[in-house]
Amino acid sequence: MVLVYIDHQDNQIKKSTLEAVSYGAALAKQLGTEVHGLLLGSVNDDLAALGAYELKNVYQINDSALAHFDAQVFVKTIAAAATKVGATSIVFSHNQTGKALCAGVSALLKAGLVTGAIALPNTSAGFVVKKSVFSGKAFANVSIQTAVKIIAISPNSYKVEGGAAVVATTTPLDIAVSAGHVNITAVHKTSGEISLTEADIVVSGGRGLKGPENWGILLDLAKELGAATACSRPVGDAHWRPHHEHVGQTGVQVAPNLYIAIGISGAIQHLAGVNRSKTIVVINKDPEAPFFKAADYGIVGDAFELVPQLTDAIKKMKASA
Amino acid sequence: MKILVCISKTPDTTAKIAFTDGAKKFDESGVQWIINPYDEWYALVRAIELKEKDPTTIIHLITVGGADAEPIIRKALALGGDEAFRINTDSADSFSIAAQIAAVANTEKYDLIFTGKETIDYNGASIGGMLAALIDAPYIPLATAFNIEGTTATITREIEGGEEVVTVNHPVVVSCQKGVAEQRIPNMRGIMAARTKPLNVIEPAAVEALTSIESFELPAPKAGVKLISPDNVEELVRLLHEEAKAI
Question: Domain for residue B226, yes or no?
Protein backbone atom coordinates (compact mmCIF):
# COMPACT_ATOMS: atom_id res chain seq x y z
CA MET A 1 0.00 0.00 0.00
CA VAL A 2 1.09 3.55 -0.77
CA LEU A 3 0.48 5.87 2.19
CA VAL A 4 0.46 9.64 1.58
CA TYR A 5 0.97 12.04 4.47
CA ILE A 6 -1.87 14.61 4.40
CA ASP A 7 -0.22 17.85 5.48
CA HIS A 8 -2.43 20.67 6.65
CA GLN A 9 -2.17 24.14 8.11
CA ASP A 10 -4.90 26.33 9.60
CA ASN A 11 -7.32 23.38 9.23
CA GLN A 12 -6.83 23.33 5.48
CA ILE A 13 -5.14 20.78 3.23
CA LYS A 14 -2.15 22.27 1.43
CA LYS A 15 -1.55 22.43 -2.30
CA SER A 16 1.69 20.51 -1.78
CA THR A 17 -0.41 17.72 -0.25
CA LEU A 18 -2.45 17.46 -3.46
CA GLU A 19 0.81 17.04 -5.38
CA ALA A 20 1.86 14.29 -2.98
CA VAL A 21 -1.57 12.60 -3.31
CA SER A 22 -1.40 12.76 -7.14
CA TYR A 23 2.11 11.31 -7.01
CA GLY A 24 1.03 8.61 -4.55
CA ALA A 25 -1.92 7.64 -6.76
CA ALA A 26 0.31 7.32 -9.82
CA LEU A 27 2.86 5.34 -7.79
CA ALA A 28 0.14 2.97 -6.52
CA LYS A 29 -1.02 2.41 -10.09
CA GLN A 30 2.55 1.69 -11.17
CA LEU A 31 3.03 -0.80 -8.31
CA GLY A 32 -0.43 -2.35 -8.71
CA THR A 33 -1.54 -1.42 -5.21
CA GLU A 34 -3.87 0.99 -3.39
CA VAL A 35 -3.25 4.52 -2.21
CA HIS A 36 -4.40 5.77 1.19
CA GLY A 37 -3.88 9.01 3.07
CA LEU A 38 -2.73 9.55 6.64
CA LEU A 39 -4.07 12.56 8.53
CA LEU A 40 -2.86 13.52 11.99
CA GLY A 41 -5.31 15.83 13.72
CA SER A 42 -8.27 17.26 11.87
CA VAL A 43 -9.14 19.65 9.04
CA ASN A 44 -12.20 21.64 8.00
CA ASP A 45 -11.84 20.46 4.40
CA ASP A 46 -14.01 17.63 3.14
CA LEU A 47 -11.74 14.59 3.17
CA ALA A 48 -14.05 12.70 0.79
CA ALA A 49 -13.09 15.26 -1.89
CA LEU A 50 -9.53 13.87 -1.88
CA GLY A 51 -11.04 11.04 -3.93
CA ALA A 52 -10.82 13.42 -6.89
CA TYR A 53 -7.09 12.71 -6.77
CA GLU A 54 -7.82 8.97 -6.69
CA LEU A 55 -7.28 8.62 -2.97
CA LYS A 56 -9.32 5.65 -1.72
CA ASN A 57 -9.28 6.28 1.96
CA VAL A 58 -7.84 8.54 4.63
CA TYR A 59 -6.66 7.07 7.91
CA GLN A 60 -7.22 9.67 10.58
CA ILE A 61 -5.55 9.79 13.98
CA ASN A 62 -7.25 12.34 16.16
CA ASP A 63 -5.56 12.85 19.49
CA SER A 64 -5.28 16.05 21.51
CA ALA A 65 -1.48 15.64 21.53
CA LEU A 66 -1.58 16.16 17.74
CA ALA A 67 -3.34 19.52 17.94
CA HIS A 68 -0.02 21.32 17.64
CA PHE A 69 2.99 20.32 15.60
CA ASP A 70 5.86 18.53 17.33
CA ALA A 71 8.10 16.67 14.88
CA GLN A 72 9.20 14.07 17.45
CA VAL A 73 5.60 13.13 18.31
CA PHE A 74 4.41 13.20 14.70
CA VAL A 75 7.33 11.06 13.51
CA LYS A 76 6.61 8.33 16.06
CA THR A 77 2.89 8.39 15.27
CA ILE A 78 3.44 8.20 11.50
CA ALA A 79 5.94 5.36 11.86
CA ALA A 80 3.53 3.39 14.07
CA ALA A 81 0.60 4.06 11.71
CA ALA A 82 2.57 3.06 8.61
CA THR A 83 3.51 -0.23 10.25
CA LYS A 84 -0.04 -0.87 11.45
CA VAL A 85 -1.66 -0.35 8.02
CA GLY A 86 1.13 -2.20 6.21
CA ALA A 87 2.42 0.66 4.05
CA THR A 88 5.18 -0.34 1.62
CA SER A 89 5.68 3.16 0.23
CA ILE A 90 5.21 6.42 2.16
CA VAL A 91 4.95 9.71 0.28
CA PHE A 92 5.53 13.19 1.75
CA SER A 93 5.79 16.60 0.16
CA HIS A 94 9.31 17.86 0.79
CA ASN A 95 7.92 21.15 2.07
CA GLN A 96 8.76 22.55 5.51
CA THR A 97 6.57 19.97 7.27
CA GLY A 98 7.86 17.09 5.16
CA LYS A 99 11.43 18.16 5.98
CA ALA A 100 10.53 17.94 9.67
CA LEU A 101 9.07 14.44 9.37
CA CYS A 102 10.29 12.21 6.56
CA ALA A 103 13.85 11.74 7.83
CA GLY A 104 12.71 10.73 11.32
CA VAL A 105 10.18 8.23 9.94
CA SER A 106 12.92 6.81 7.71
CA ALA A 107 15.25 6.34 10.70
CA LEU A 108 12.60 4.73 12.92
CA LEU A 109 11.42 2.29 10.24
CA LYS A 110 14.91 1.76 8.75
CA ALA A 111 13.17 2.55 5.47
CA GLY A 112 15.24 4.08 2.67
CA LEU A 113 14.40 7.71 1.95
CA VAL A 114 14.78 9.92 -1.11
CA THR A 115 14.12 13.61 -0.48
CA GLY A 116 13.60 16.23 -3.16
CA ALA A 117 12.29 13.59 -5.58
CA ILE A 118 11.15 15.02 -8.92
CA ALA A 119 9.68 12.00 -10.73
CA LEU A 120 8.01 8.65 -10.22
CA PRO A 121 10.48 5.84 -9.52
CA ASN A 122 11.90 3.60 -12.18
CA THR A 123 10.80 0.14 -11.06
CA SER A 124 12.02 -1.84 -14.08
CA ALA A 125 14.98 -3.09 -12.02
CA GLY A 126 14.72 -2.24 -8.34
CA PHE A 127 13.29 1.05 -7.14
CA VAL A 128 15.21 4.08 -8.40
CA VAL A 129 14.05 7.62 -7.71
CA LYS A 130 15.34 10.71 -9.47
CA LYS A 131 16.12 13.65 -7.24
CA SER A 132 17.64 17.06 -7.60
CA VAL A 133 21.21 17.41 -6.23
CA PHE A 134 23.95 20.05 -6.15
CA SER A 135 21.24 22.64 -5.50
CA GLY A 136 19.52 22.03 -8.81
CA LYS A 137 22.70 21.81 -10.89
CA ALA A 138 22.34 18.04 -11.41
CA PHE A 139 20.12 15.03 -10.75
CA ALA A 140 20.89 11.77 -8.99
CA ASN A 141 19.14 8.44 -9.51
CA VAL A 142 18.91 6.92 -6.06
CA SER A 143 18.14 3.27 -5.45
CA ILE A 144 16.14 2.42 -2.33
CA GLN A 145 17.16 -0.99 -1.06
CA THR A 146 14.74 -1.53 1.82
CA ALA A 147 11.31 -3.18 1.72
CA VAL A 148 9.57 0.01 2.84
CA LYS A 149 10.33 3.05 0.70
CA ILE A 150 9.89 6.70 1.62
CA ILE A 151 9.74 9.43 -1.00
CA ALA A 152 9.55 13.16 -0.28
CA ILE A 153 8.65 14.97 -3.48
CA SER A 154 9.96 18.42 -4.23
CA PRO A 155 7.12 21.01 -4.20
CA ASN A 156 5.97 22.11 -7.68
CA SER A 157 7.59 19.12 -9.35
CA TYR A 158 4.55 16.87 -9.78
CA LYS A 159 1.34 17.89 -11.52
CA VAL A 160 -1.86 17.82 -9.49
CA GLU A 161 -4.28 15.55 -11.32
CA GLY A 162 -7.84 15.88 -10.05
CA GLY A 163 -11.21 14.99 -11.50
CA ALA A 164 -11.52 11.31 -10.60
CA ALA A 165 -14.99 10.13 -9.60
CA VAL A 166 -13.86 8.60 -6.33
CA VAL A 167 -15.21 9.48 -2.90
CA ALA A 168 -12.54 8.88 -0.28
CA THR A 169 -13.60 7.14 2.89
CA THR A 170 -12.26 8.10 6.32
CA THR A 171 -11.08 5.40 8.72
CA PRO A 172 -10.16 6.33 12.30
CA LEU A 173 -6.89 4.74 13.32
CA ASP A 174 -6.11 3.96 16.93
CA ILE A 175 -2.46 4.71 17.66
CA ALA A 176 -1.05 5.53 21.09
CA VAL A 177 0.33 9.06 20.80
CA SER A 178 3.17 10.01 23.15
CA ALA A 179 3.41 13.41 24.84
CA GLY A 180 5.71 15.99 23.27
CA HIS A 181 8.31 18.44 24.54
CA VAL A 182 7.76 21.37 22.18
CA ASN A 183 5.50 24.33 22.95
CA ILE A 184 4.50 26.75 20.24
CA THR A 185 4.50 30.26 21.72
CA ALA A 186 3.87 32.40 18.63
CA VAL A 187 3.11 32.12 14.93
CA HIS A 188 3.99 34.94 12.54
CA LYS A 189 2.28 34.65 9.18
CA THR A 190 3.51 36.76 6.34
CA SER A 191 -0.14 37.58 5.73
CA GLY A 192 -1.43 38.10 2.23
CA GLU A 193 1.81 36.91 0.69
CA ILE A 194 2.03 33.81 -1.45
CA SER A 195 4.31 31.07 -0.14
CA LEU A 196 7.53 31.21 -2.14
CA THR A 197 8.09 27.48 -2.43
CA GLU A 198 4.49 26.79 -3.47
CA ALA A 199 4.08 29.69 -5.90
CA ASP A 200 3.39 29.06 -9.60
CA ILE A 201 4.99 32.37 -10.50
CA VAL A 202 7.87 34.12 -8.75
CA VAL A 203 8.94 37.71 -9.41
CA SER A 204 12.44 38.36 -8.11
CA GLY A 205 14.56 41.49 -7.86
CA GLY A 206 18.27 42.15 -7.54
CA ARG A 207 20.70 44.98 -6.99
CA GLY A 208 19.67 46.44 -10.34
CA LEU A 209 16.64 47.91 -8.58
CA LYS A 210 19.06 50.13 -6.63
CA GLY A 211 17.17 50.31 -3.33
CA PRO A 212 14.19 49.06 -1.31
CA GLU A 213 12.22 52.19 -2.17
CA ASN A 214 12.08 51.02 -5.79
CA TRP A 215 10.36 47.70 -5.06
CA GLY A 216 6.90 49.07 -5.83
CA ILE A 217 7.09 48.27 -9.54
CA LEU A 218 8.05 44.70 -8.73
CA LEU A 219 5.27 44.31 -6.18
CA ASP A 220 2.73 45.66 -8.72
CA LEU A 221 3.86 43.09 -11.26
CA ALA A 222 3.72 40.30 -8.69
CA LYS A 223 0.23 41.35 -7.65
CA GLU A 224 -0.99 41.38 -11.24
CA LEU A 225 0.41 37.88 -11.78
CA GLY A 226 -0.61 36.46 -8.39
CA ALA A 227 3.09 35.80 -7.89
CA ALA A 228 5.31 35.39 -4.84
CA THR A 229 8.18 37.86 -4.50
CA ALA A 230 11.82 36.92 -4.06
CA CYS A 231 15.23 38.53 -4.17
CA SER A 232 18.92 37.85 -4.72
CA ARG A 233 21.37 37.39 -1.86
CA PRO A 234 22.88 40.93 -1.89
CA VAL A 235 19.36 42.34 -1.59
CA GLY A 236 18.59 40.10 1.39
CA ASP A 237 21.97 40.84 3.00
CA ALA A 238 21.39 44.59 2.62
CA HIS A 239 17.98 44.15 4.28
CA TRP A 240 16.19 45.72 1.31
CA ARG A 241 13.90 42.70 1.52
CA PRO A 242 13.28 40.13 4.31
CA HIS A 243 15.89 37.39 4.22
CA HIS A 244 13.27 34.65 3.78
CA GLU A 245 12.83 36.00 0.23
CA HIS A 246 16.47 35.24 -0.63
CA VAL A 247 16.50 32.68 -3.43
CA GLY A 248 19.67 30.81 -4.29
CA GLN A 249 22.07 28.11 -3.22
CA THR A 250 22.17 29.27 0.40
CA GLY A 251 18.63 30.60 0.44
CA VAL A 252 15.34 29.17 -0.76
CA GLN A 253 15.30 26.87 -3.79
CA VAL A 254 12.27 27.36 -5.98
CA ALA A 255 10.84 25.55 -8.99
CA PRO A 256 7.88 27.63 -10.22
CA ASN A 257 6.29 27.53 -13.66
CA LEU A 258 7.58 31.03 -14.29
CA TYR A 259 10.51 32.89 -12.71
CA ILE A 260 10.93 36.55 -13.62
CA ALA A 261 14.34 37.96 -12.66
CA ILE A 262 14.60 41.73 -12.61
CA GLY A 263 17.97 43.40 -12.25
CA ILE A 264 19.68 40.16 -11.15
CA SER A 265 22.98 39.38 -12.87
CA GLY A 266 22.62 35.62 -12.33
CA ALA A 267 25.60 34.52 -10.23
CA ILE A 268 26.04 30.75 -10.22
CA GLN A 269 24.82 30.59 -6.59
CA HIS A 270 21.61 32.38 -7.53
CA LEU A 271 21.02 30.14 -10.56
CA ALA A 272 21.36 27.09 -8.31
CA GLY A 273 18.22 28.20 -6.50
CA VAL A 274 16.10 28.81 -9.59
CA ASN A 275 17.25 26.61 -12.44
CA ARG A 276 14.46 24.08 -11.97
CA SER A 277 11.95 26.79 -12.90
CA LYS A 278 10.05 25.77 -16.05
CA THR A 279 10.29 29.16 -17.75
CA ILE A 280 12.78 31.89 -16.85
CA VAL A 281 12.44 35.53 -17.96
CA VAL A 282 15.35 37.90 -17.41
CA ILE A 283 15.15 41.67 -17.52
CA ASN A 284 18.54 43.33 -17.20
CA LYS A 285 20.19 46.38 -18.69
CA ASP A 286 23.50 44.53 -19.06
CA PRO A 287 23.44 42.32 -22.18
CA GLU A 288 26.42 40.41 -20.74
CA ALA A 289 24.57 39.40 -17.55
CA PRO A 290 25.19 35.64 -17.10
CA PHE A 291 21.50 35.14 -16.29
CA PHE A 292 20.60 35.48 -19.99
CA LYS A 293 22.41 32.17 -20.65
CA ALA A 294 20.02 30.40 -18.27
CA ALA A 295 16.91 32.25 -19.47
CA ASP A 296 14.16 31.29 -21.91
CA TYR A 297 13.14 34.86 -22.63
CA GLY A 298 15.07 38.05 -22.07
CA ILE A 299 14.81 41.77 -22.52
CA VAL A 300 17.89 43.95 -22.40
CA GLY A 301 16.76 47.29 -21.03
CA ASP A 302 15.90 49.52 -18.11
CA ALA A 303 13.84 47.72 -15.48
CA PHE A 304 12.32 50.98 -14.26
CA GLU A 305 10.68 51.45 -17.68
CA LEU A 306 10.11 47.82 -18.62
CA VAL A 307 8.52 46.45 -15.46
CA PRO A 308 5.56 48.90 -15.37
CA GLN A 309 5.09 48.31 -19.12
CA LEU A 310 5.04 44.57 -18.49
CA THR A 311 2.43 44.97 -15.74
CA ASP A 312 0.26 47.04 -18.10
CA ALA A 313 0.67 44.57 -20.95
CA ILE A 314 -0.41 41.69 -18.68
CA LYS A 315 -3.44 43.71 -17.53
CA LYS A 316 -4.37 44.31 -21.18
CA MET A 317 -3.94 40.66 -22.07
CA LYS A 318 -6.14 39.61 -19.16
CA ALA A 319 -8.79 42.18 -20.13
CA SER A 320 -8.92 40.89 -23.70
CA ALA A 321 -8.91 37.21 -22.71
CA MET B 1 26.19 22.99 28.45
CA LYS B 2 27.53 20.62 25.82
CA ILE B 3 26.91 21.25 22.13
CA LEU B 4 27.58 19.02 19.13
CA VAL B 5 27.88 20.66 15.70
CA CYS B 6 27.67 18.37 12.67
CA ILE B 7 30.08 19.38 9.91
CA SER B 8 29.97 18.23 6.31
CA LYS B 9 32.53 18.67 3.55
CA THR B 10 31.03 19.99 0.31
CA PRO B 11 32.32 21.31 -3.00
CA ASP B 12 32.68 25.09 -3.16
CA THR B 13 29.52 26.90 -4.29
CA THR B 14 31.19 27.84 -7.58
CA ALA B 15 32.58 24.32 -8.28
CA LYS B 16 31.96 22.91 -11.73
CA ILE B 17 29.51 20.04 -11.42
CA ALA B 18 30.63 17.12 -13.59
CA PHE B 19 30.66 13.35 -13.27
CA THR B 20 33.06 10.52 -14.11
CA ASP B 21 33.07 6.73 -14.15
CA GLY B 22 30.03 6.44 -16.40
CA ALA B 23 28.20 9.23 -14.54
CA LYS B 24 28.43 7.20 -11.32
CA LYS B 25 30.83 9.48 -9.44
CA PHE B 26 31.16 13.19 -8.81
CA ASP B 27 34.23 14.50 -10.65
CA GLU B 28 36.45 15.83 -7.88
CA SER B 29 39.25 17.06 -10.14
CA GLY B 30 40.03 20.70 -9.48
CA VAL B 31 37.26 20.99 -6.92
CA GLN B 32 37.81 23.23 -3.88
CA TRP B 33 36.28 21.79 -0.73
CA ILE B 34 34.58 23.89 1.90
CA ILE B 35 32.61 23.41 5.10
CA ASN B 36 28.96 23.11 4.07
CA PRO B 37 27.84 26.77 4.33
CA TYR B 38 24.78 26.02 6.50
CA ASP B 39 26.95 24.05 8.94
CA GLU B 40 29.59 26.78 9.11
CA TRP B 41 27.79 30.11 8.84
CA TYR B 42 24.82 29.27 11.01
CA ALA B 43 25.19 26.08 13.10
CA LEU B 44 28.85 26.46 14.10
CA VAL B 45 28.82 30.24 14.53
CA ARG B 46 25.72 30.12 16.75
CA ALA B 47 27.39 27.48 18.93
CA ILE B 48 30.46 29.72 19.22
CA GLU B 49 28.27 32.68 20.18
CA LEU B 50 26.63 30.60 22.93
CA LYS B 51 30.09 29.71 24.26
CA GLU B 52 31.09 33.37 24.23
CA LYS B 53 28.09 34.11 26.46
CA ASP B 54 28.74 31.12 28.71
CA PRO B 55 32.42 30.11 28.65
CA THR B 56 31.69 26.85 30.47
CA THR B 57 30.02 25.61 27.29
CA ILE B 58 31.80 22.75 25.54
CA ILE B 59 31.57 22.50 21.76
CA HIS B 60 32.30 19.28 19.93
CA LEU B 61 32.45 19.08 16.15
CA ILE B 62 31.78 15.88 14.25
CA THR B 63 32.18 14.76 10.67
CA VAL B 64 31.86 11.43 8.89
CA GLY B 65 34.54 10.91 6.27
CA GLY B 66 38.02 9.80 5.32
CA ALA B 67 41.32 11.58 6.06
CA ASP B 68 40.52 14.01 3.22
CA ALA B 69 37.89 15.58 5.51
CA GLU B 70 40.54 16.70 8.02
CA PRO B 71 41.38 20.10 6.47
CA ILE B 72 37.66 20.92 6.69
CA ILE B 73 37.34 19.94 10.32
CA ARG B 74 40.56 21.86 11.15
CA LYS B 75 39.10 24.91 9.45
CA ALA B 76 35.97 24.52 11.54
CA LEU B 77 38.11 24.25 14.69
CA ALA B 78 39.84 27.49 13.64
CA LEU B 79 36.48 29.24 13.85
CA GLY B 80 35.79 27.74 17.27
CA GLY B 81 34.96 24.57 19.13
CA ASP B 82 36.95 22.62 21.68
CA GLU B 83 37.35 19.19 20.21
CA ALA B 84 36.50 17.31 17.03
CA PHE B 85 35.56 13.80 16.03
CA ARG B 86 36.06 12.27 12.63
CA ILE B 87 34.29 8.99 12.13
CA ASN B 88 36.61 7.20 9.79
CA THR B 89 34.35 5.91 7.03
CA ASP B 90 33.12 7.14 3.69
CA SER B 91 29.67 8.63 3.96
CA ALA B 92 27.36 6.19 2.19
CA ASP B 93 23.91 7.74 2.64
CA SER B 94 22.09 10.06 5.03
CA PHE B 95 20.95 7.23 7.28
CA SER B 96 24.41 5.75 7.71
CA ILE B 97 25.86 9.19 8.54
CA ALA B 98 23.08 9.92 11.04
CA ALA B 99 23.49 6.49 12.64
CA GLN B 100 27.26 7.02 13.03
CA ILE B 101 26.69 10.39 14.69
CA ALA B 102 23.91 8.94 16.86
CA ALA B 103 26.35 6.33 18.21
CA VAL B 104 28.64 9.13 19.43
CA ALA B 105 25.74 11.29 20.67
CA ASN B 106 24.38 8.40 22.73
CA THR B 107 27.61 8.14 24.72
CA GLU B 108 28.53 11.85 24.90
CA LYS B 109 25.02 13.08 25.90
CA TYR B 110 24.76 16.53 24.32
CA ASP B 111 22.36 19.26 25.42
CA LEU B 112 22.17 20.72 21.92
CA ILE B 113 22.92 19.24 18.53
CA PHE B 114 23.17 21.65 15.61
CA THR B 115 23.20 20.75 11.92
CA GLY B 116 22.93 22.90 8.81
CA LYS B 117 19.48 22.78 7.20
CA GLU B 118 20.93 20.71 4.34
CA THR B 119 24.19 20.16 2.50
CA ILE B 120 24.66 21.99 -0.77
CA ASP B 121 25.76 18.83 -2.59
CA TYR B 122 23.16 16.11 -1.93
CA ASN B 123 20.46 18.42 -0.52
CA GLY B 124 19.10 15.62 1.64
CA ALA B 125 18.04 17.81 4.57
CA SER B 126 17.82 14.54 6.49
CA ILE B 127 20.66 14.17 9.01
CA GLY B 128 19.05 16.26 11.78
CA GLY B 129 15.68 14.52 11.54
CA MET B 130 17.19 11.05 11.44
CA LEU B 131 19.58 11.79 14.28
CA ALA B 132 16.77 13.19 16.46
CA ALA B 133 14.68 10.06 15.84
CA LEU B 134 17.61 7.74 16.56
CA ILE B 135 18.42 9.38 19.92
CA ASP B 136 14.73 10.13 20.64
CA ALA B 137 15.15 13.90 21.02
CA PRO B 138 12.85 16.72 19.90
CA TYR B 139 13.69 18.05 16.42
CA ILE B 140 13.35 21.66 15.35
CA PRO B 141 14.14 21.99 11.65
CA LEU B 142 14.80 25.15 9.60
CA ALA B 143 15.62 27.39 12.55
CA THR B 144 16.06 31.10 11.83
CA ALA B 145 16.81 32.15 15.44
CA PHE B 146 18.06 30.29 18.50
CA ASN B 147 18.31 31.44 22.12
CA ILE B 148 18.66 29.58 25.38
CA GLU B 149 17.96 30.51 29.01
CA GLY B 150 18.86 27.83 31.54
CA THR B 151 17.65 24.60 30.00
CA THR B 152 14.89 26.14 27.88
CA ALA B 153 15.64 26.94 24.24
CA THR B 154 13.51 29.45 22.34
CA ILE B 155 13.70 28.77 18.64
CA THR B 156 12.14 30.48 15.65
CA ARG B 157 11.61 28.11 12.75
CA GLU B 158 10.38 28.51 9.20
CA ILE B 159 6.95 27.12 8.41
CA GLU B 160 5.04 27.45 5.17
CA GLY B 161 4.13 31.09 4.73
CA GLY B 162 5.74 32.34 7.91
CA GLU B 163 7.55 31.54 11.11
CA GLU B 164 6.73 29.85 14.38
CA VAL B 165 8.35 30.44 17.78
CA VAL B 166 8.72 27.35 19.95
CA THR B 167 10.20 26.60 23.34
CA VAL B 168 11.72 23.26 24.23
CA ASN B 169 13.86 21.91 27.05
CA HIS B 170 17.10 20.36 25.92
CA PRO B 171 18.31 17.98 24.68
CA VAL B 172 17.16 19.08 21.24
CA VAL B 173 18.34 18.71 17.65
CA VAL B 174 18.14 21.89 15.57
CA SER B 175 18.75 22.39 11.84
CA CYS B 176 20.03 25.90 11.22
CA GLN B 177 19.67 28.31 8.34
CA LYS B 178 20.03 31.99 7.57
CA GLY B 179 19.11 34.21 10.50
CA VAL B 180 20.53 31.98 13.25
CA ALA B 181 23.95 33.69 13.06
CA GLU B 182 26.17 35.78 10.79
CA GLN B 183 29.09 34.33 8.85
CA ARG B 184 32.55 34.77 10.47
CA ILE B 185 36.07 34.62 9.09
CA PRO B 186 38.64 32.62 11.11
CA ASN B 187 41.41 34.81 12.59
CA MET B 188 45.09 33.96 12.96
CA ARG B 189 44.72 33.19 16.66
CA GLY B 190 41.95 30.73 15.87
CA ILE B 191 43.96 29.09 13.11
CA MET B 192 46.98 28.66 15.43
CA ALA B 193 44.80 27.35 18.27
CA ALA B 194 43.09 24.84 15.94
CA ARG B 195 46.41 23.06 15.36
CA THR B 196 46.57 21.86 18.93
CA LYS B 197 42.88 21.12 19.50
CA PRO B 198 42.13 17.38 19.77
CA LEU B 199 40.89 15.77 16.55
CA ASN B 200 39.83 12.27 17.52
CA VAL B 201 39.57 9.68 14.80
CA ILE B 202 37.05 7.04 15.74
CA GLU B 203 36.27 3.82 13.94
CA PRO B 204 32.76 3.52 12.53
CA ALA B 205 29.90 1.58 14.11
CA ALA B 206 28.44 -1.26 12.04
CA VAL B 207 25.73 0.50 10.04
CA GLU B 208 24.17 -0.40 6.72
CA ALA B 209 23.11 2.19 4.18
CA LEU B 210 19.46 2.13 3.08
CA THR B 211 19.98 3.79 -0.30
CA SER B 212 22.69 4.17 -2.93
CA ILE B 213 23.24 6.51 -5.86
CA GLU B 214 23.06 4.60 -9.15
CA SER B 215 23.97 7.46 -11.45
CA PHE B 216 23.98 11.22 -11.96
CA GLU B 217 22.59 13.34 -14.76
CA LEU B 218 23.12 16.91 -15.82
CA PRO B 219 20.08 18.93 -16.84
CA ALA B 220 19.47 19.30 -20.58
CA PRO B 221 21.07 22.52 -21.78
CA LYS B 222 18.68 25.43 -22.35
CA ALA B 223 17.72 25.98 -25.98
CA GLY B 224 19.04 29.52 -25.71
CA VAL B 225 17.44 32.76 -24.70
CA LYS B 226 14.86 34.37 -26.96
CA LEU B 227 15.61 38.08 -26.80
CA ILE B 228 12.70 40.47 -27.15
CA SER B 229 13.04 44.13 -28.07
CA PRO B 230 12.58 46.52 -25.13
CA ASP B 231 10.09 48.39 -27.34
CA ASN B 232 7.86 45.36 -27.57
CA VAL B 233 6.93 44.18 -24.07
CA GLU B 234 3.56 42.97 -25.47
CA GLU B 235 5.48 40.38 -27.48
CA LEU B 236 6.95 38.95 -24.25
CA VAL B 237 3.47 38.70 -22.75
CA ARG B 238 2.20 36.99 -25.91
CA LEU B 239 5.06 34.45 -25.84
CA LEU B 240 4.57 33.74 -22.12
CA HIS B 241 0.87 33.22 -22.72
CA GLU B 242 0.85 31.33 -26.02
CA GLU B 243 4.24 29.63 -26.27
CA ALA B 244 5.38 29.01 -22.69
CA LYS B 245 1.78 28.83 -21.37
CA ALA B 246 3.18 30.29 -18.17
CA ILE B 247 0.61 33.06 -17.64
Answer: no
Q: Is residue B224 part of a domain?
A: no
On the CB side of B152, CA atoms within 13 Å amount to 9
Q: What residue ranges define each of the domains in chain A, with the CATH number in brackets?
A: 2-172 (3.40.50.620), 201-320 (3.40.50.1220)
User: Which residues in chain B have their CB less than 8 angstroms from residue A221's CB?
Assistant: none
Per DSSP, the three-state class of A9 is strand
The number of beta carbons lying within 10 Å of the beta carbon of residue A204 is 31
CATH no. for residue B197?
3.40.50.620
Interface test with B, best of A250, A260, A281 (most B CBs within 10 A): A250
Residues 6+ apart with CB under 8 A from A82: A3, A38, A90, A105, A109, A148
For position A23, what pLDDT does the model report? 98
CB hemisphere CA count around A94 (13 angstroms): 29
3-state secondary structure (DSSP) of residue A190: coil
- Per-residue model confidence (pLDDT) at position A192: 64
- The one-character DSSP state at A120 is -
What is the tally of structural domains in chain B? 1
User: Residue A196: closest CA among chain B residues belongs to which residue?
Assistant: B161
**Low-confidence residues in chain A, pLDDT < 70:** 191-193
Question: What is the bridge-based pairing of β-strands A57-61 and A35-40?
Answer: parallel
Range of the domain at B106: 2-214
* Selected residues 49-68 of chain A with any CB under 8 Å from a CB in chain B: none
Low-confidence ranges of chain B (pLDDT < 50): none
Q: Is A100 on the interface with B (CB under 8 A)?
A: yes
Report yes or no: B209 at the A interface, CB cutoff 8 Å.
yes
Residue window 3-22, chain B: list those with CB within 8 Å of chain A. 11, 13-14, 17, 19
pLDDT of residue A198: 83
What is the maximum alpha-carbon separation in chain A?
62
Q: What is the pLDDT of residues B188-244, one digit of tens each?
A: 999 999 999 999 999 999 999 999 999 999 988 878 999 999 999 999 999 999 999
CA distances from A273 to A114, A277, A281, B215 (A): 19, 9, 15, 22
Single-letter code of the amino acid located at A29? K
ipTM confidence score: 0.95
Residue B44 lies inside a defined structural domain of this protein: yes
Burial class (CB in 10 A: 0-12, 13-18, 19+), A291: buried
pLDDT number for residue B3: 98
pLDDT given at position A191: 61
Interface of B with A in 210-239 (CB under 8 A): 210-219, 222-223, 225-230, 233-234, 236-239
Any domain includes B230: no
